[in-house]
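Hi! If you just cloned this repository, the fastest way to understand the data is to look at a raw example. We've pasted two of them here, unedited. The first protein comes first, obviously.
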Amino acid sequence: MSIMIDFIDETKELSEQELNTIEKLLFFAAEKEKVEANSELSVTFVTNDRIQEINREYREKDKPTDVISFAMEELGEGEIPLTGVDLPRVLGDVIISLAKAREQADDYGHSFIRELGFLAVHGFLHLLGYDHENEEEEKIMFSRQKDLLDEFGLQR
């Protein structure tokens, strides 16, 4: 039993093979991170315009970015955690700009699928509580990303 991933390709640009690779990568990462079976997340692939709207609305940054994560387990102000309820763990949403992924793959000199995998794992780790607000957190998160991608077989 693995995690449940809802993929939404708003751009209709990804091939079935690319989606399957990202799905296998996230299953692999979830297993390595010991995420509970049946945990849920969504991964949405969007245009630069769409991610810019989301970035502006939720992060007050009026520019396109590569990936944005919305962790469901972070409690908002005034929210209380549900306890004693046997519901699947809902990790949250990862939103990836395909145009940014293509641009960055070119900039870094690696494949589009490697960049897409990097962004998916990056967003996924954010949902699990990893962050890069300071140098120490960044070292831990980026090292974990690289290890997962290398072990899966998506090296640079």
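Ok, and the second one:
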Amino acid sequence: MRICGGFLSNAVVFGLTLTLCLHLLKSQAGDGDGHGDRIVALPGQPKVVFQQFSGYVTVDEAAGRSLFYWLTEAADRPSEKPLVVWLNGGPGCSSIAYGASEEIGPFKINKTASGLYLNKYSWNKLANLLFLEAPAGVGFSYTNRSSDLLNTGDRRTAKDSARFLVRWLDRFPKYKNREIYLTGESYAGHYVPQLAREVLEHNRRSRSKINLKGVMVGNAVTDNYYDNVGTVNYWWSHAMISDRTYRRLLSTCDFKGQVQDSSQCENLYYYAMDKEFGNIDQYNIYAPPCRHNSDRHRHLRRRIRLPHLPYHPLSGYDPCTEKYAEIYYNRGDVQRALHANISGHIPYKWTACSETLNRNWNDTETSVLPIYRQLIAAGLRIWVFSGDVDSVVPVTATRYSLAQLKLETNIPWYPWYVNNQVGGWTEVYKGGLTFATVRGAGHEVPMFKPRAAFQLFTSFLKGRPLPRSSSSS
């Protein structure tokens, strides 16, 4: 995949047109109600009753770092609904490509990339959805300082995202007192709790409080050691690797990261993926892979301790949807409608994920479990869910990691239901944390099991346990 999100040389920076500069100044100033960012309609979009906004928020004036967002307000009574922020992971992948266009947004892209169709299970039926592309270098988000793309990581992403949220709320003051929830998947297992921690710190220092109520993450990267052990166990228990490879991985790999030379471990990972997995979609081991994704293993094995670039997700599932997004969002008329790449002179194509960011991710917390403890102590609602046929950040990894919190059980393990079928299994812990599996879902749960994911989101917003029967949905 080519670089996305604004890798700008000095020549290009100085060559930005006056039109773009004026637009960005206007965008940052705002008009108090976001009308300057209003989307009239996207090309090929069906008629809708809800409003949409998109544009840029500058998070670092000196570096020229600006993050791109897309707000789709709730379809019914938006003023009464909470604000839900969605982040995708990677690191380096776009929330527009995945969350908005494949999973929880109101629209999906048709196979010819000529237009959009409605998502029956869009989460904007229940909330106002704010999709954020972070960090700079992801999707339409950009920086005028090209070195930013070579030294980014968890810390800057969290601080930039928090600054974005504060400034975005200034632009849309009607959301300032609204209940806010932070959500996401995959490497957003880092982004979401880290951003929540920044919000709590902001609230401690500022008179203007952000009304953060909870966080929810799916198939989330959580703890280096337990995630890796859980992943290897998942591969073996699902017959993806041999007994010999399984034993060698456990005996050779230093999952705690204390040994500098990990080449032997990496070679074992490569061997498992290339020789033993076969041609499968590792994000859903029972789904047909997209025939155009022959380079998939190359992207998956880029990082072992960091998460792997998220991809895709049976019946009704199209494993090639990312390709449609890369055509649609590179259309000039689409970018104009979204107020993205206004000058048209930025010399890169929009891509779903940035290899440059992923290869140069220079700081990552080895575990976010200490942050979970902080969020629990702050009284936040925390839900962690896991599609159980994902082999990239599998259910075993999440269970091993969460077990380290040693939380007391409030509601013991039970099957939850949707549409008269078992949707998955769940357990509720004292302190506000709920864990839930989604049966038959891969890495992108709302894409694989949209109805079950919608029930999950409904229960999360209500703060109620998942239904024990369809009649209680």
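That's it. A detail worth noticing about the second one: The first helix runs from residue 10 to 14.
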